[in-house]
Amino acid sequence: MGYKLSKTSFDRLLQAMSKRYVPVGPMCAKNAGAFSDTDSIRYGKITSYADLELAQKSYFSPKEFVFPIRETLFRFNGSNREVPEVAARPIAIFARPCDINGFNRLDSVFLENGPEKDFYYARRRKNIKFFMIECLTGFESCFCVTMKANKTADYSVALRFGEDEILAEVKDEEFISLFEEYGEIIDYKPEFKESDNAKVELPNFEGVDLEAVFNHPLWKEYTQRCIACGRCNTSCVTCSCFSMQDTAYDAAKTLSERRRVWAGCHIDGFTDMAGGHSFRKNNGDRMRFKTMHKIYDFAARFGRNMCVGCGRCDDVCPEYISFSACINKLSEIIKEMKNV
Amino acid sequence: MCENAYLTEPLKLISIRKETEIDFTFKVEYNKPLLPGQFLELSIPGVGEAPISVSDFGDGYLDLTIRKVGRVTEQIFEMRPGDVIYARGPYGNGFDCKLYENKDLIVVAGGTGLAPVKNLINRFVSNKGLLKSFTLIIGFKSPEDILFADEIRQWETSANVCLTVDRATGDWKGRTGLVTKYIEELEIGDPASAEAIVVGPPMMMKFAVLGLMKKNLPKQNIWVSFERKMACGIGKCGHCKIDDTYICLDGPVFNYTKAEKLLD
Hints:
Chain A is an alpha+beta fold. Chain A has helices at residues 7-17, 97-112, 119-125, 176-182, 210-214, 218-225, 231-235, 283-302, 312-316, 323-339; strands at 2-6, 22-29, 40-45, 70-77, 80-82, 91-95, 128-133, 157-161, 165-170, 184-186, 242-248, 255-262. Chain A folds into two domains: 2-186, no CATH class; 210-339, no CATH class. Helix content of chain A is 30%, strand content 21%. The longest helix of chain A has 20 residues, at 283-302. Chain B is of the alpha/beta class. Chain B has a seven-stranded mixed β-sheet with strand order 10-9-8-7-11-12-15, sandwiched between helices. At the A-B interface, strand 4, helix 3, helix 5, strand 11 and strand 12 of A face strand 4 and helix 1 of B.
């Protein structure tokens, strides 16, 4: 069902909706950027249309609503293990198709990989509904079309934010009465972005000697450039790695908690084992590991590429390493390998 | 709602045996089904969690042979019989012992790599008739690093045991040299049908496998067990992933035809 809303009626709808849902969307946190006088675009609770920052891409993805940076798994209280509860109120995430597809990639890791589902992810994930932000132009570093992540049907409501009015398609019956009340019925179906600003060509790995790809001098360049800060990992909507961390509240450790915290394959210590063995000591090898995971081996396991082409890793890298440029270089190398 | 796989369970410590200065075997009460080569995520509240392979098991117990090398293991060494340690699992595929029945089996183990194959060795030592022949090549850095010394002597009664140390110290009268040296000296009746298991540090595994292949063992008859950092053991945390393979789910035991393609 399609609806048209003015900005004022959209604000009223948001307020009415907030009784049952926590609406979150991309917002501009003033002066919260990494440098002085810079803003940070990040996800937060929205109460009105004016809260939404739609002209710029968010630095962080909305993945922290299902996979928080740090999450307490349980507390040890003597011999008791107490699992903290999570807020019961479901979250409505205002997200672009690339990010919604990112959640689909997270689902594969947390819910489909191996016989056990991830309890903590599952209980948050079932409380998520998507309000898709129609995205027709994207941003400079976006390549969702190449990654086949420009489209999605996984939304309750799709929204087009125009100059004066907001158009909505409501698929989830739960929200129909709200839009009936605040909107006016019209014909609207969301459209999807059909071409990328960042031109990316995916390599075709078929019949290629992967060992030769792994040993290619291309990766050495990244050993020189990458500083292993892990920003690409933390900004990525599909990066799902974590480490366990215990912390005690008292010296006798009668009270303590076990948490999981984000981890990243670019960051030192990711593969360190007690006793001293570790793998991928060169940062270039980590770039290779991440690249192959995002555009090759995840797909080998789950049937579609992990990378959704949001381009955030390009936006945040302090060394100006471009992931899309890396993919293009790899494509050229693979073509050369096939021609020889 | 799905089960919470991260909720670790208390296990009671039955006894502790000193193997070397830094390797102790901890026997704990345990009643779940297990396969040789599987591992647990062992933890101490407030300290942390670590993947530890099960070295042996039987009715109502399992053994964990642990080297004191990290935050968690250092704390484990402070524990006494009767204390409670936490664990979840078992995880991993483990060894399929049926595969080796009626075959010539060669096990090559280096250092703490002996722990994950100890149960399998005991199994075949006490059921000698299951194998055509049983050869063990076991290497340690020095005589002080030898694990399960008493049991190795017992194994000699029903298997061809070759125990070697990289460098002799004190009054060591036994063999010296790397395990690869003794792989070279192996006499395998029918290499095409023999099976081999190789467990140990990455470099040792690599050269031991090459040595076995030189002896005309086909790679599909060679099995290895991997060790990687793991935070979850259930395919979520990402630390142990190599290419599209998760060591915790798809391994840690791999046929060499698969293992040779796993590039870190």
